């Protein structure tokens, strides 16, 4: 069962990130800090892990990353941890698909995206 304090922080993170125009915006960065706080309380909070992955893969997707390989690696580690903890978590599959697409692994990306529909 998810720690309620961590889950509350993760949901606040979700709200802040959803309102933000881009992962690099000031609003999104404030939201990501909430995810980091959630993970300090519960390092296995799938919502916080998944949302924090956005911080790394979305700038690559929008050609805004200064270090795309490192950002995709970190985003992939977070998304992979989400899927290891909860293989049915749809956002984990969607975000993993985005990362695979940004790595040019389109066949794998499509298969991963389809997994979130099951």
Secondary structure blueprint with pairings:
Elements: H1 4-19, H2 26-41, H3 46-61, H4 68-85, H5 90-102, H6 106-115
Order of helices and strands: HHHHHH
Poorly predicted runs: none
Number of helices: 6
Report the biggest beta sheet as strand number plus sense, adding barrel if it closes: none
Amount of helix: over 70%
Radius of gyration: 13 Å
| CATH fold description | Serine Threonine Protein Phosphatase 5, Tetratricopeptide repeat
Structure notes:
The chain is mainly α. The protein starts with a helix and ends with a helix. It has a single domain (4-115), classed as Tetratricopeptide repeat domain (Serine Threonine Protein Phosphatase 5, Tetratricopeptide repeat, Alpha Horseshoe), CATH 1.25.40.10. The protein has 6 helices and no strands. The model has no long low-confidence stretch (mean pLDDT 93).
Short description:
The chain has helices spanning 4-19, 26-41, 46-61, 68-85, 90-102, 106-115.
Q: Any key phrases for this structure?
A:
118 residues, mainly alpha, Serine Threonine Protein Phosphatase 5, Tetratricopeptide repeat, 6 helices, 0% strand
């Amino acid at each position: 069962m998810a720690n309620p304090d961590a889950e509350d922080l993760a949901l606040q993170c979700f709200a802040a990130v959803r309102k933000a125009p881009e992962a690099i915006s000031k609003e999104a960065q404030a939201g990501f800090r909430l995810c980091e706080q959630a993970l300090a309380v519960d390092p296995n909070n799938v919502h916080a892990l998944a949302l924090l992955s956005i911080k790394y893969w979305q700038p690559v997707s929008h050609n805004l990353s200064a270090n795309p390989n490192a950002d995709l690696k970190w985003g992939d580690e977070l998304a992979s941890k989400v899927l290891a903890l909860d293989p049915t978590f749809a956002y984990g599959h969607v975000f993993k698909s985005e990362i695979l697409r940004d790595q040019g692994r389109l066949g794998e990306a499509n298969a991963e995206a389809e997994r979130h529909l099951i």
